Amino acid sequence: MQAASRESYKIAAERLDAYVRGAEPSAVATTADDIISVAALLRREPRLRRALSDPARSGEDRAALLTGILGGKVGADALELVAALVSGRWSAPSELLDATERLGVEALLAAADSGGELGEVEDELFRFGQVVSGSPELSNALSDAMVPAKQRATLADQLLAGKARPVTGYLVGVALAGFGGRSFTGALTRLVELAADRRDRQVAYVTVAAPLSEEEERRLGASLSAIYGREVSVKQTVNPEVLGGASVRVGSDLYDGTVLRRLNETRNALAKR
Question: What is the pTM of this model?
Answer without folding.
Answer: 0.88
